[in-house]
Design a protein that fits this description.
Blueprint lengths: L10 H7 L20 E3 L21 E2 L5 H7 L2 H18 L3 E3 L22 H16 L4 E7 L12 E3 L2 H8 L1 H9 L4 E4 L3 E2 L2 E2 L4 H9 L7 E4 L7 H6 L12 H11 L4 H21 L9 H15 L1 E5 L11 E4 L17 E2 L6 H9 L3 E4 L12 H8 L5 E6 L18 H13 L3 E6 L15 E4 L7 H10 L12 E2 L16 E3 L8 H7 L3 E3 L10 E10 L5 E9 L5 E11 L10 E10 L4 E8 L6 E3 L4 E3 L3 E8 L5 E9 L9
Parallel strand pairs: 1-3, 2-12, 3-4, 4-6, 5-7, 5-18, 6-9, 11-13, 11-14, 14-15, 15-16
Antiparallel strand pairs: 7-8, 10-16, 17-19, 20-21, 21-24, 22-23, 22-27, 25-26, 27-28
Helix pairs in contact: 1-10, 2-11, 3-4, 3-11, 4-6, 11-15, 12-15, 13-14
The structure holds beta-D-glucopyranose.
Length: 666
């Protein structure tokens, strides 16, 4: 097939190419161009069959539900983000999808955002690092990706028209920063713009976002796709350099044609995007030889299990309730049998795997009898025989209760209304704790959950997130001690839904004012002195880790190697996520107390130590200065904090930065 250039296409063809052929494909002009077929992610492959490409609701292939992005982030293990990408790409290869519409690196500004389970973190650095590895994993196997949703898509209600009003500094330091980090690390084939407006202009028509920042500053050279239905006016979005409007849009051709006739856009504007589109289409073809099917269905599930196991977060473990004792155990909660594997919406995978009952896996691993009662019905309705559950629980010295939120509560297109568990689930936990003093709670959910109603009454709480098809395998390994927990929270768990951010479900006049600026998540909690339930970065294991011997070695003006020892004081091998934060107390501009700038996840054998080292560069000290429209490091004293969480700081050291005077302002 001859490789076409812009000159080979008629004006009509060029205008057609600016909009999808149908729901999932680009135009080919009867075979003149190779076909490109896109499909959803990020929590596994969700793809309609080719025969259904022209309809929204077609049957989707059955694939592996991978640990959701919330879980991938909670591993704090970039290598697993890469592996996750590889497995999903393998399924793309099997089903002949060319581009995976994932991942999303939006900031979790509020725990209520209905898509938090699809996003990595409240922290731009963590989101950027993990997002980049995910993309590398997919693209190294010859499948394209879509870095989404650009930008400031942190709430789902009224997402098609909501206006996120955010100041320039917060935009650059928080909301755009994960995109910037990803684009420094790798080259996604596409970026997907978001539905919402940013500072009054729809993302799809926002030239400042798409051209001035994304292309000119971040150097993005792929195509920008609209989110499905986010392109309202095709010529206005063309003016903003949106390359591809998806899906097919009946009036798009006429809009561009009229704009050309009136001189509102020029043929050069069309050609700019058409050239990007042709480069993209041929880039996808050039990637095809990299596509090698690698894994069987079983191997994919094994990989999903490895990620899921590292992703679960042990929030509390009083009286060493976990790992479970080898004693008769009562297991309560329908989700133990029918787990909540993922959130709802365009990322919901139609699973090809059976989910073993947690009861059977626990019984096998513990070698004891495990009694199970469903306790509540599907869709959280009704508590089945509360009396029976209490009577039973009174006879057990170990009770595991599995609760959470399913897709009826957590779904794209709507925000959560609360972070408290459903009253029926709270009631169940309460009932059981009245008669048993060794209760272990497992929570399956996609974002922060308020556990304050029961945390003092139960011994242990394990946050499973949405761990995908392998959830019960991972849970059984962690609960029985076959594996030690090593996940940490990639988002703060606040006490109240609006402790850290105004309630995003009330946006007067459709304007969501991001008045907290850069003080998002733990940055805000520390600035305001707000107590949180579980801090960013928190997560326990079955061992304790001791940190010592912090060394800060200067390598350049703003380049440092930070190293320290972590000692595993326990009797089992375990992995620890150590976090390095940097803060500048006496800065001229208001800055967060500290910000995550590096982290490391290390497996440390029992009763031994590991020397860990990470690096800091200019970006560890810089803030975005809106006057010079650039990152700036202000000379002064910085503190390096090394911790097991954002609030469990074990080691600190001061660094004095003295850049040449000409870089400074008087
Ligand atoms: C979602 C995107 C998704 C697209 C295609 C939209 O509703 O916001 O994330 O990729 O649909 O399904």
């Amino acid at each position: 097939m001859k490789k076409l250039t812009v000159k080979d296409l008629s004006l009509e063809e060029k205008i057609h190419l600016l909009t999808g052929k149908d729901v999932w494909r680009l135009h080919t002009f009867s075979g003149k161009l190779p076909e490109v077929f896109v499909a959803d992610g990020p929590n596994g492959l969700r793809m309609v069959s080719r025969e259904n490409a022209d309809n929204w609701g077609g049957e989707v292939y059955k694939t592996t539900a991978m640990p959701n992005v919330v879980n991938v982030a909670n591993t704090w293990n970039p290598a697993l983000a890469y592996e996750n990408g590889k497995v999903i790409a393998d399924e793309c290869i099997e089903h002949d999808a060319d581009v995976l519409l994932a991942p999303g690196v939006n900031i979790k500004r509020s725990p209520l955002c209905g898509r938090n389970f699809e996003y990595f973190s409240e922290d731009p650095y963590l989101a950027g690092v993990m997002g980049a590895e995910y993309i590398k994993g997919v693209q190294d196997k010859g499948i394209g990706t879509s870095l989404k949703h650009y930008a400031v898509n942190s709430s789902e209600n009224d997402r098609l028209c909501m206006n996120a009003e955010v100041d320039e500094r917060a935009l650059r330091e928080i909301y755009l920063r994960p995109f910037e980090i990803v684009l420094q690390e790798t080259k996604p084939t596409t970026v997907m713009c978001s539905y919402n407006k940013v500072n009054g202009i729809h993302a799809s028509e926002n030239r400042y976002l798409l051209k001035d920042i994304l292309r000119d500053i971040f150097g993005f050279d792929g195509i920008v796709i609209s989110d499905w239905g986010a392109c309202h006016n095709r010529w206005k979005s063309l003016k903003a350099t949106l390359d591809l409007c998806m899906p097919v849009k009946e009036d798009a051709f006429a809009q561009v044609k009229t704009a050309l006739e009136n001189g509102w856009v020029s043929e050069e504007d069309v050609d700019f995007c058409v050239e990007n589109l042709l480069n993209f289409i041929y880039r996808i073809q050039e990637m095809k030889p990299m596509r090698k099917l690698e894994f069987t269905e079983e191997q994919r599930l094994e990989k999903a299990k490895a990620i899921a196991t590292e992703s679960m977060v042990l929030l509390q473990n009083e009286n060493c309730a976990l790992p479970l004792k080898k004693i008769p155990t009562l297991l309560l909660g329908r989700m133990a049998e029918f787990p909540a594997t993922c959130g709802g919406g365009s990322s919901e995978v139609s699973s090809c795997h059976k989910h073993p009952h947690l009861k059977d896996l626990l019984a096998e691993k513990l070698g004891v009898e495990v009694t199970f009662r469903s306790a509540y019905e599907a869709h959280l309705n009704g508590l089945s025989s509360a009396r029976e559950c209490m009577d039973l629980a009174a006879r057990y010295d170990q009770v595991v209760v599995v609760v959470g939120e399913d897709t009826s509560l957590v779904c794209e297109g709507m925000n959560r209304t609360d972070i408290k568990l459903h009253p029926k689930h709270l009631q169940l936990i309460d009932n059981v704790t009245r008669v048993c003093d060794n209760v272990i709670v497992v929570i399956e959910a996609g974002s922060a959950v308020d556990t304050s109603a029961f945390q003092d009454k139960v011994n242990a709480i394990l946050y499973a997130g949405y761990a995908g098809d392998a959830v019960n395998y991972a849970l059984s390994d962690l609960l029985t001690g076959a594996a030690a927990p090593s996940g940490k929270l990639s988002e703060t768990f606040p006490y109240e839904k609006d402790d850290l951010c105004p309630d995003v479900n009330f946006t007067p006049g459709g304007v969501d004012s991001y008045g907290e600026g850069v003080f998002v998540g733990y940055r805000g909690a520390e600035d305001m002195g707000v107590d949180v339930l579980y801090p960013f970065g928190h997560g326990l294991s079955y061992v304790d880790f001791r940190y010592e011997n912090l060394q800060v070695e200067k390598k350049g003006e703003t380049d440092y190697v930070i190293s320290y020892d972590i000692y595993n004081e326990g009797a089992v091998d375990a992995a620890e996520v150590s976090q390095v934060y940097v803060g500048q107390a006496a800065a001229r501009v208001a800055r967060p107390v500290k910000e995550l700038k590096a982290f490391s996840k290390d497996v440390i054998p029992a009763r031994s130590k590991k020397h860990v080292s990470v690096t800091l560069d200019h970006s560890a000290f810089a803030y975005y200065n809106v006057c010079i429209k650039d990152w700036h490091v202000e000379n002064g004293t910085f503190t390096v904090y090394v911790g097991a969480s954002s609030q469990d700081i074990r080691l600190t050291q001061k660094i004095i930065v003295t850049l040449p005077d000409e870089t400074q302002f008087t």
